[in-house]
Amino acid sequence: MVGEEVHLQCQASFDPSLDITFIWSLDFRVIDFYLEWKHYERIMDREDSGELKIMNVQLRHEGRYTCTAQTVVDNVTASADLKVKGLPGPPGGVRVEEIRDTSVKLVWNRGADHGSPILGYTIQTRDFYALTEVDWRDASTSPTALDGTSVMADVVDLYPWMEYEFRVYATNEFGDGEASIPSMKIKTWDAGRDQPGALTCCCCKEMCAFVYECLITSVGNTLLCVTQCLWWPRPTLEATGVKMES
């Protein structure tokens, strides 16, 4: 598991009159004990042994370890595979496939489980008014619980006509993994207007605007007040019979 210490044994029989050297490699790359001293140590407490100690194991230390016992006349090798368990990797390909006024359909690809089955996924959102780059919030989804086999879900209870981006992270028995790269930013559709408010008129030079003072739209348990401006050429007195004040 990530963070633990691992010992790999390597012993060889040889002519005591000869010098012996033990060389360790990971996936055919020779380990440099001077540059990688924080994680690797070669223990030579016996002439016929070249034990490898791996400290604070990380996911990148997983692979095939090969020990080569070498003298001036011969060499012999032995290998062992090391599997490292840890937090799940980030999901990939997070994208929005359907956009509605208060919900979207989000799709993603499963990431690496790193030796422990994924128990579930969590979707997070960040909207236009996020104060910081790390201001992510857990989203409401349908279905509510996203198990380890999920690759899509509806994100619900969003605001209409609002810019959003999304990310996903996985959870296994060791905890929450790294979040995915955020999706492309999208904007939800404008909601239908249910209760138009008073209509007023103002004019400037050759243009007029009719303005709804307040349009009430229900979004979950929230009421939004929206102002809508519509412009067109200023009508003439002959066309309307109403004198328009500038």
From TrEMBL:
Kindly give the CDD domains that the UniProt entry links to this protein.
FN3
Write down the superkingdom of origin.
Answer: Eukaryota
UniProt subcellular location: Cell membrane
Q: Which residues form the Ig-like domain?
A: 1-83
Q: Which UniProt keywords apply?
A: Cell adhesion, Cell membrane, Disulfide bond, Glycoprotein, Immunoglobulin domain, Membrane, Repeat, Signal
Q: What is this protein called?
A: Uncharacterized protein
> Where mainly found?
membrane
Q: Which residues form the Fibronectin type-III domain?
A: 90-191
Q: Which GO terms describe its molecular function?
A: cell-cell adhesion mediator activity
Q: What InterPro entries does this protein's entry cite? A: FN3_dom, FN3_sf, Ig-like_dom, Ig-like_dom_sf, Ig-like_fold, Ig_sub
Family under the similarity heading:
Belongs to the immunoglobulin superfamily. Contactin family.
PROSITE patterns attached here? FN3, IG_LIKE
Please give a single GO biological process term from the UniProt record. Answer: brain development
Entry GO CC: axon; plasma membrane
Listed Gene3D superfamilies: Immunoglobulins
SUPFAM superfamilies cross-referenced by the UniProt entry: Fibronectin type III, Immunoglobulin
